[in-house]
# Entry
Amino acid sequence: MGPHGSSGVKPKFPEQVCIEALREAARTLGDVPTITAYDELARNSGGRLPGALTVKHRLGTWHGSLSRAGL
# Structure
């Protein structure tokens, strides 16, 4: 770990990537994604999109995550 309690490894899906993933999901689904619909889309993305739990971990609650994405 680094001097500030961090391993120095950047997360695969930082906050901005999670926000963009939610926006992409909304465009793909044609509506604000539910956590279930989003997670299915992420599972079928071949690892391109972060899973719903990762999004929540980076951004907070599901509704808060949607709000941060402007949805």
Summary: The chain has one domain: 15-68.
